[in-house]
Request: fold
Amino acid sequence: MMDGRALRSVADKPGMPAFLPALTLEHCALLVESRASEEHTLNSQCDTIMSALSAFEIPEQVAFTTDSGTVATLWGIRKGMFPAVGAVREAGTTVIIEDVAFPVERLAAGVRELQALFTEFQYNEAIIFGHALEGNLHFVFTQGFESQAEVTRYGKFMDAVAQLVAVKYEGSLKAEHGTGRNMAPYVELEWGADAYQLMQRIKSLFDPKGLLNPGVIINDNPDAHITHLKPMPKADDLVDRCIECGFCEAVCPARTLSLSPRQRIVLYRELSRLEREGSTDKHAELQKAFDYLGVDTCAATGLCAERCPVGINTGDLIKKVRIAKYQRFVPIARWTANHFDTVTTLTRVGCPPTARCNLFSVKKPWAACSIASVNSPRAKHRRGMKASPAPTLTKPLLLKRAEPNRLFTSLPVPVAIWATKSAVKINAH
Ligand code: SF4
Reply:
């Protein structure tokens, strides 16, 4: 089941059925899937479903089909809803998804009253979708936690939802997903004092020191859902839409080395928050960790964007950070690239004669070799090949003039800087 706002949230997405934009907020849609092992059984089931729906006005419909393309399009409507809300939310807000159940025979009335609560508390972007056959609804809305007024609005809305679902409709505040901190203050409301005390006793028997998932499900704080809230501060347009769902993590090649894309964004947000707050020491400490974990070890492949429901490419953010970080070296790198003849001449002047060079290379074996020669002993060593037995400093510098220019202009800034520094170092000898 998808309500009118849910349908509207995906109406302009590519691949959606053409009739979606014409529907109003009063419409809702059912996506019905039926399965059977025999074709005639399947057809008979579909007929039964259609005759059950015949009492309702159906403005648009797609006939039952076994065509996999059409089936994928129809499921695409449903699957695009959660990210659609995430993509349009205001920067600095969080996407919240809840999971309640009404008795099936009162589901329609429950949906109407839930929609009325959205209006009352001004969650105008809130959408509802769910599994009508089980009376299970998910509703998605966005919420900022940066001001007390917003936290209060949220707290009152959740109180009203709990009263509506658990008390008025005697439904369930958690249906297919587990109870977390958000619903912990309402477990007693739903189950009653006796059942709740029993739960507390069972929990303390198995976990007398309160080590297991503290504060989740069993929590004596009636404001547990509005305390210790994690802010979602604005950080950069490239990643502000991130809902921290973690879908991108599995494909990140650096996730086992340092951080996943989600973790990079979380740290970057925290850095922005600390900077705005003026917490200089904490910011400096975190920045130091982020330089390696977040910036230097990101492969910037963009694979994360392929999994991200809101299309974020964390690599784009990291490239932007890298450019800012190394900006001050750009003039040196550019000068080096534009005057490479001078650089190589100066470097050659600084090279000791070959005889001394071998001696010298014992102490500083690959200083020059590593500038540009892919066959330098160091480069070979890195590639697991056997290094040349008698490396010299002069040989790798006898590059054709065209090569170093091509090499240096194609290098990212920091590598060019490193090479420039090496060249200067050699020249000093
Ligand atoms: S960047 Fe990762 S965590 Fe953030 S919304 Fe995209 S998939 Fe989810």
In short: Residues 354-376, 386-429 have pLDDT under 50 and may be disordered. The chain has three domains: 4-147+154-175, 249-327, 339-428. The longest helix spans residues 148-168. The first strand starts at residue 93 and ends at 101.
